[in-house]
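Researcher: Can you fold this with D-xylulose in place?
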Amino acid sequence: MPIYLGFDSSTQSLTVIAIEVEGAGRRVLYEKSLRFDESFPAYGTKNGVLPHEDPLVARSSPQMWAEALDMLMGLFAKESGIDLSRIAAVSGSGQQHGSVYLNAAAADTLGSLDPSRPLVEQIRGIFSRQNSPIWMDSSTSEQCAEITEAVGGEGVLALLTGSRAFERFTGPQIRKYYDQDAVGYEETSRIHLVSSYMASLLAGKHAPIEPGDGAGMNLMDLARKRWAAAALQATAPDLDRKLPELRESSHDVGPLAPYWVKKYGFPPARVIAWTGDNPSSLIGVGLVRQGRMAISLGTSDTLFGFMAKPRIDPSGVGHVFGSPTGDFMSLICFKNGSLAREAIRREYAMSWAEFSKALDATAPGNSGGILLPWFEPEITPTVHEPGARRYELDPGDGPANVRAVIEAQMLSTSIHSQWMGVTIDTIHATGGASRNREILRVMADVHGASVYQFEVGNSACLGAALRAYHGDTVARGEKVPWETIVQGFAEPMAESRIDPIPSHVEMYGELKRVYSACESHATRGGDDPRPLIEAFRKRFG
Ligand code: XUL
C-alpha cells in the first residue's frame, strides 16, 4: 500500500500531509504544520513576512523555508509512526509568485548535501539574493508599466500570459531586482519560484517549473506552456538562461536526494514537480471538471474554478493559470484575507468564538454599513494606500464591524468574479476560516449558492499529496483518471451543506451595488455612495 506525501510551503507555515491509497480505500494518515514566526523566531518574520519600512514591500527568507523543510522531514520521520519505506512519491505546493535567486554554486551544493550537517548551514552560499519577494509585495508598479508598454499593452500581455502585469507577479519582481541590483542579477544563474526551489531541495538538483505556477509570472505563453520570448525580453536581459525548464505538472524530478535518505531514513521516493498553492487547492477540493467554484479563506482569499479553455479577464482583475490536470483555472486574489479578519478581531478584543457570535447576533446587510477592509495594500481592486475605509459604519460598534469585514470580503469575491461568466450554484469552501460556519452562511447568501466544507481544511497540501499520487501513476505508465485520483479525499461533506436563504440573496444583490459604489468612490473618485446607502436602508432596514 503506497503512501504519498504532500507539502504546502505557504506564507505563514510549512505543512505536510501523508495519504494512503489502496484501491478504493483512502485515508489521511498524518498532518503537521510548523508556523514560521514561532518555530524560527531568529528570522524575525511577522506572519511569515520580514519587516520592512515600506508597506508595499513584502519579502521572506528562502533559508527559513529550507530550515522548516529540514525540521518537518525530521519530525515526520520521528513522530508519524509511518513505515517510511512505503512512501512512493512526494510533491508540494508553494505560495505563488515568490522568487528565489540562486548563484552558479547552487547546482553543486544541492547535489552534494552532507547528511551529518543541517541543510541551512550548507546552502547559505547558494543565494545571489538573500531575500525573496513574495506575493504580498506591491512595489513594482513602475516595472509593470514598463513591461506592459514593451509587449504592446495590457491586452496583449493578458492574452499571452493569462494576466495583465500585476505587482506581485514574478516578471515585474525580476525586473525590479535587475533595475536595483544589476550585479546581483548578473550573478544569478537560476531564478526559482517558491515551488520549484522547494522541489530542488528535496531532489538535490534544480527542479523545473510546472505550468500551473508558471502562469503566475507574466512570463509564460499560457496557450503553449512555454516561456514567452516577448515577455522575457520585456522583463530583463538573459532571462531565458536563468529560468528553469517548464515541464508538465506530473513531471518526475528524480528521487529524494541522498541527504534525506541517509539523514532521516526516507526511501528514494519520486519527487513530483511542485505547483502553486492555488492550482494545488483546485485538486485538493476536487475541481477536476468544469462546474463548481471554490473559495479559499487563507492568508489570501481566493475564488477559483476549473476552466477547459482559457477565458481572459477584460476588466483586468482576474487571472488564468494552468491546472495540474493540463487544463486551465480562473482565479481572483484578495490580499486582505485572514489578516483583515484578524485585524478586526484584535481591534475589538474578541476571541474567535466571540467573532462568530458577533456574526450571528448582527443582521445580514448590516443596515448598509460598509467597510472596505484594505488593512494591507489590496490586489483586487488595486489599492496602494493601506487603511480601512468606513461608510455609515460606526467604528465603535465591534459586532457591526465583524459583520462588515465578512460581508465586504464575500461581496468583493462576487463582484470581481463576474468576468468568469459562470453562474455559481455550488461553492467548495476551503482554508482555515472555512471552518467557521457563520462566515460560510454569508458566503452562501451573497453568492446565492450552496456551500460545502471539507474534512481536510488545507486543500493546497492535500492537493499536493494527490499530485504525488497522480505523478507516481503516470511514472508507472498507468492512466488513472483525475476523478479516481481525488475520489474519497477531495469530496465535500454532504452534511456540511449550507443553502442560501432567498430573501438574503435578494438583499445582497442590492448591497453589491452599494459596495461597488463605495469601492468606486474610494478608488476612482466615483459619486458619493451615501444616497444609495440611504435607499438601501429604507428598503431593507
Ligand atoms: C494568488 C496569490 C496568493 C498566493 C498565496 O495569485 O497571490 O493566493 O498564492 O499563497
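Model: Folded with D-xylulose in place. The first strand starts at residue 3 and ends at 9.
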